[in-house]
Write a structure and sequence with these properties.
The complex is a heterodimer of chains A (497) and B (616).
Chain A (H helix, E strand, L loop, with lengths): L1 H18 L1 H4 L3 H9 L11 E8 L9 E3 L4 H8 L10 E2 L12 E3 L4 H8 L3 E8 L7 H4 L13 H9 L11 H9 L11 E3 L15 E2 L9 H4 L14 H12 L5 H24 L11 H5 L14 H14 L1 H4 L3 E8 L8 H23 L10 E6 L19 E6 L8 E2 L25 E2 H12 L3 H7 L25
Parallel strand pairs in A: 1-8, 1-9, 5-11, 5-12, 6-7, 6-8
Antiparallel strand pairs in A: 2-4, 3-4, 5-10, 9-10
Chain B lengths: L1 H15 L7 H4 L13 H11 L5 H10 L1 H9 L7 H13 L8 H14 L3 H11 L15 H13 L5 H9 L2 H6 L19 H8 L32 H10 L3 E2 L13 H4 L2 H5 L25 E2 L18 E2 L12 E2 L10 H14 L4 H13 L6 H12 L13 H10 L1 H4 L10 E2 L2 H11 L15 H4 L22 H4 L12 H16 L19 H4 L5 H13 L5 H13 L8 H14 L2 H4 E2 L1
Antiparallel strand pairs in B: 1-2, 3-4, 5-6
Helix pairs in contact in B: 3-4, 3-26, 7-9, 8-9, 8-17, 10-16, 12-13, 17-18, 17-19, 18-19, 24-28, 26-28
Classes of the chains: A alpha/beta (497), B mainly alpha (616).
Amino acid sequence: MATDHRRDFIRRSLATLAGSAAFTALPAKLALAQNARPMLRGAGIDYRALVCIYLYGGNDCFNMIVPRDAGYAAYQATRTNLAVAQNALHALSPVQAPIGGGQFGMHPEMRGIADLFNAQRAAIVANVGPLVRPVNKTTYQQPGTLLPPQLFSHSDQSVVWQTPRADTTARTGWGGRLADIFFSSNANPTLSMNVSLAGENVFQAGQTVLPYFMSSSGVERIGMIETGAANCADGGQGWNRRRCLTFNALQNATYAHPFQRAYANRMRATRETTRMVDVALATVPRNDPVFQPFWTAFGLAWNATNPPELPDLGEQLLMIARVIRARDALQMSRQLFFAGIGGFDTHDNQLTDHGPLLRQISAGLKGFYDVLAQPSMALTNQVTAFTASEFGRTLSNNGDGTDHGWGGHHIVVGGSVIGGRIYGRMPNLSGNSQTNPDDAGWGQIIPTLSVDQYAATLATWFGLGATDRAAIFPNLQHMTGSMLSIPGPDLGFMQAV
Amino acid sequence: MGRRHRAAAALALLLAAPAALAQDAIFADGFDNRPEGPFTRAEAQRFLTQATFGPTLAEIDRLLAMGYNAWLDEQFVATTSRQLPFLDQLIQADIAANRPIDVWQDKRQEIWWRNVLSGNDQLRQRVAYALSQILVVSDQNGALEGNPTTLAHWHDMLASGAFGSYRTLLENVTLHPSMGHYLSMFGNRKPDAALNIRPDENYAREITQLFSVGLVMLNADGTPVDGNPAQAGVQPVPTYNQDTIRGFAHVFTGWKYSTCIPPNTTSADPNNNLNWWNWEYCSSQAQSVSGDQDWRLHEGWRTPLRPWGEGNTVRGEVYYAHEGTKQLLNYPGVSLPNGVLPSSSGRTAGSRARHDLGLALDNVFNHPNVGPFIARQLIQRLVSSNPSPDYIGRVAAAFADDNGAAAGGTRGNLRAVVRAVLMDPEARNLAQVPANGGKLREPLLRVSALWRALDARSRDGRIREGWPEVYGAQAVLRSPTVFNFYLPTYALPGEIANAGLVSPEFQITTDTYITRLTNELGGKVYWAWIGNTGLGSWDPVQVDLSRDLALADQPAALLDRYNLLFLGGTMSAGMRSTLLAHLNDIAPNSWEGWRRERVQDALWLILTSPEYVVER
């Protein structure tokens, strides 16, 4: 009886998947690409993961990476009371200067990233932002120029950053579309290839693949039906078995309303996945000394019995590291993770509020990298972390903060990053909006690299072929010409693995 | 008269409800119905699901007796259940007892729960909750997290304005110190070219994008205007551009606490008398109060902001940008020529900032988008995620003119808008609800519905439910960002998105939270019940199972009651037979708690079922 039930359950799940509109709506190009893709089956073989660190609110990257040469004067004149002190910057010593030259330093709270950069394990990608077509100040001001919709709006630009489809209102993310292609590389058909530590996001939403959501404290089960000897689906005789069977019967009934189906599907997928993740996480406890570099990076004392809590992003990256360490148990060979922290919308109190956030990014990523570098992990070349944020902020100052901008700098960390370099061109920091050639009009910097290029470079490293790349990033073909600091589909900051 | 309506009701019932459910227990009335209905208990239940924090048996019968219109008229004038007096009372008690003041955001949540669970102004509180998700401020903000009283005052402002003018509400929102801090309009300065300082655009951007007109021009039914019908698809027309944002940003300058010390003399000498530190470090404490007053009692946090220097005819509003014209919204029929606010430098100093603010808010309020933009969101919060354009159009028409087709009406009367939302055929008549109508219930409303239906209470009357976001991903005035707990446009990827539907509440229905809320409802049903000795000294809100324990030996009758209370009589035959078999399986006398187990299982299995969780 119980075995039959289980089989029923699986059959129903498959039927749901095959019959759903989502499956049939898969674009023809993608469906074709899917037939031709390499199958990377097998646990632990050729592992590869991307980790997106989303900075909610629009990070002020012009205070994150600051000129430390003669260029500092222009920066200081523009930023006035918001300027970061020149002598407090951590010097960056690139093996290759950015286009247009200049020497730069990292924000005083970002020692960890500066060290990774100087060890060629991190790169900076300069002035990236959403574009439909490359633009400069002249074309920006011309009527009829194709521009991303609703520039400077949080909600819209964060969607465009994650899709990146500045030409449409489509809401699938590039990570989701990537997973639509690669999810069957994983031997595990249950756990989503995309795991989010920071809730719902556009980046990981595909046509068929939905992310699995967990929290940095782990996963939880439904106590009223999943405690006891065994859960009902496995035929156990636990004290809550009867309730569990009725619960399942109600969830698994046929429903007329799409919301009812969606709710029941989510409940079913959650329970199945959670059971699996829970078991796997037990094999990689939080206090395993392999994770100690996180505490070192944050300057916190390690305690093998009960390590103290890390700042938010630290805990998220720690949980990602644990899931990666459990990859064999989970039978995952391709994964996309999403972490995120908020607070970057520094309209006011920027000097007080911004530093601690940058510190979380820096210490979090340094700890994460060092964990991957532990001999028992040895995954630095297999895992790449990168930042994303809806926009950079205005060069100009509103008294004690900055407003919504456009282009911004981003950080990529990992052993496969061709690090120690600043890719692209750093923008002109002059505060004169009229004469600054990079200024769209009010301190908002026109991007000289597109999010499409940034994302496609990462996706290519992940294993995406040229044909699929054109399907996933349809605007990439337009990212050519001299208005971009680096033209073409690949910015060159990732090695092939 | 009464007879004819009963006949109509019976017909509607045949059309709308599964015949198997047409049982006396649910549908019998015995009242002389009002012509507009409700005609059945099931209809009354459905209305109360939309208009209150959860139906009770008593309220279902009361509504059935009163009729919708009388009930609405009663609710429109019901006295506001306020939050601030409760917090002030706690603070004063701590002060009187000479102990540290233990009043934080959890106490603000407590008085919210108390009001929504037992307040007589249910509709007012429900609309205030909806408004709090459109006009967002949040305690997840450095300036507000330690200040529960200003947020209580904010909520009281929403509740007391829930049936007033939207224009008034916009002004109260703009000038509230909570909003001033949340979106940094407070202390926003006029431009200073020498220092490369220009006005902060935060509030300018969100009042337009989120509180009034949205990003694209709308037709009267909420559909986007097509800027180029010749081209395939809809080409949206932006409502504003960056110049507009800059214009509004300049208007929203110069405002500080009402308690600030203004420029301290009427002398025209700019060198002596402009004490900038009075602006920069001005106090929220009333100058009439001596000594150090706790910030939670400060007058400046509970009175509208004021332009610094207002009324000073010589110095004027020193930090207000009165020079220069300001581009505001431009739209057909705009009253300022081309939407441009002229410079107010010709006006008497000290009267400029407020004058310009008034014109700017009029400019926002009269934009044709406001009706359909706000209508859609109020419908989404109260009735359905995907209202038809006709439904939005009808509610927007009520926004445009509360007098309907007759002349002499008023724009922006929320009382008329709320009535239109709730009395629309698409809201009232189940037979007219589209196949995809309704919405996913919000987590807080799932908890409040349980507690109200089972008269839940703690032993000492307090409500210790200060952090519901831990299980529900939402708590009142605790959104993670100004974009609320979910976006009104969020579409769950897959079937829902592909069908072109939106499903805001699914944005917080992640693996983590679907599990936590399911568990939490389990705890509230199986653990927190009155009489459970296992609670020891812990005193949470507890459901009262006693009324329903009396039906434990009649599982069919128990299910009928819960079908009415929670599902408005719409429980499917399949769900009913599954539950009935389950309850009958819990054999009498097998152990002493079998009665309770039947009631608890019925509750929890219904409250977590897809049929209940999606409200139609």
